[in-house]
Amino acid sequence: MSPDELVYLGVLAASIPVGFLFRYLSSSVKQAAALFLGLFITIALCNIHTLHSLVTVIGTWIIIKSSWRHAPALSLSWTFLYLLFFRLVTWFDLPQPTPFANAIQLILTLKMVSLANEVHSFHIEKKRDVSSFAKSPVIGGLTQEPSLVEILSYSYCYVGIMTGPFFRFQTYMDWLKQPSPLALPRWEPCLQRLKMVPVFGALFLAVNHYFPLSYVRTDGFLDENIFFRLFYMVAVFFVFRMRFYAAWCGAEAGCISAGLGCYPEKALSKPGGGPTVNYSPDPTSEEKYDFKTIQNIDCYNTDFCVKVRHGMRYWNMTVQWWLHHYIYPNAPFKSYALRAGWTMLISAYWHGLHAGYYLSFLTIPLCIAAESVMESAVRAKLGPSGQNAFDWIHWFLKMRAYDYMCMGFVLLKASDTINYWASIYFTMHVIAVGCIIVGRVLRGGRREGRKGEKGPTGEGGKTENPEEKTGQKTE
């Protein structure tokens, strides 16, 4: 493990026992302590680069105070333009930000855009209440516009400050105002989330030792046979998954120990967004709680769901919610394929400027188009046993597609990514295009409507089956 990874691990490990202590604090003390600890982590790891995050927060606050009506669009423009400056600071003879500053800036960008949207919704509902003389049944909405101190406290809250998960300002305020935090679930859900972390960590170290990414960039790699080169991307993506499974499960445990994102099960919370229905405590029965609001990874479904679009639903779940609510609906296109491509482009930009991100993310709409056309042209015409076989093949190809796209994500450079893809003859691109052509031929060239189609993050639109309407996950 690199020194940076050890620091990340140390921050994650320390946040878990610290979280349990925060349950004993009053609302005001909890807010101050979380802010102090978050600032301490930020300044200790980022030094002078802390100013980048501070400028981003102050800029967003000015936007909200000066023009709440246009705050969503202005905050998105401001934070994303500052991300560009942040990544190109060396062009202005400024020091290169640390990886820790980059991680904090990424999470902060999500928070500031979400905050601007929450404030906008608050003012819209406030005007509606005044005009209708009735209280709107807003779910999880703000009750007042946040002050600068509250915005700073939210921005620098120590929970997930570098690793996520993303959570809304309202989730943060609900955490501060929990009436009985010690009565909420603690040890059991925390240990449940941590139990596989040692396994993920051991697998990451072992497989990474035998299949280092650096070997792909050597001339010797090209001398290996095609089957070895194909298998190597499977091993690389496995290492990639184990690393993030361990990190995100640890980050979720830090949230759970502090009680952040804990809501009654009847609130039907979604990762990132929080409650989706209004709820009230029932004093006559024992309340059941969950931490779905801060769930960032579903390891099982990431590996074993069938479709490419569903794989995205279970990976980095809180960010997927953010993309679905703030990017996909506002895409400057009506076509599903173009809207999906736009969302993936924004996601790639958020991750960074490396060409590998764009090559990988912009391959996703192609894969989604391929699986959609094959489902309607082939799977829909098969019997139960045929559909079962189709799904197994679909799952296998989905995993290979993610293996393939992961190489661009980790190699970063366009030349390294294209060289690797060329060494395996652009296999997944060829298969995806081939599926689209075959599907179109079998369908007789008919184009099916996309009405009700889900977004690329697997949310929105018409539900794919009745069970999804109840909030249950299905695959």
Q: What is shown here, in short?
A:
By secondary structure, this protein is an all-alpha fold. Helices cover 62% and strands 1% of the residues.
Describe the model:
This protein is mainly alpha-helical. It contains 20 helices and two strands. Strands 1-2 form a two-stranded antiparallel sheet. Helix 8 runs antiparallel to helix 11. The longest helix is centred in the first third of the chain and has 34 residues, at 99-132. The radius of gyration is 23 Å and the shape is globular. The two termini are 35 Å apart. 42% of the residues are buried. Mean pLDDT is 90; it is low at 448-452 and 460-475.
Give the SSE layout.
Layout (H helix, E strand, L loop, with lengths): L2 H20 L4 H20 L3 H17 L4 H17 L11 H34 L15 H8 L13 H8 L10 H8 L2 H14 L8 H4 L3 H33 L4 E2 L24 E2 L8 H6 L3 H6 L3 H10 L9 H16 L3 H7 L2 H14 L6 H28 L2 H10 L3 H16 L33
Antiparallel strand pairs: 1-2
Helix pairs in contact: 1-11, 2-6, 3-4, 3-5, 4-5, 8-11, 9-11, 11-18, 15-16, 15-17, 16-18, 17-20, 18-19
Descriptors:
mainly alpha; 20 helices; 475 residues; globular
**Helix/strand structural class:** mainly alpha
Helix fraction, binned, reads 55-70%
Q: Secondary-structure element order, as H and E?
A: HHHHHHHHHHHEEHHHHHHHHH
Main sheet record:
2 strands, antiparallel
The total count of helices amounts to 20
Spans of at least 5 consecutive residues with low confidence: 448-452, 460-475
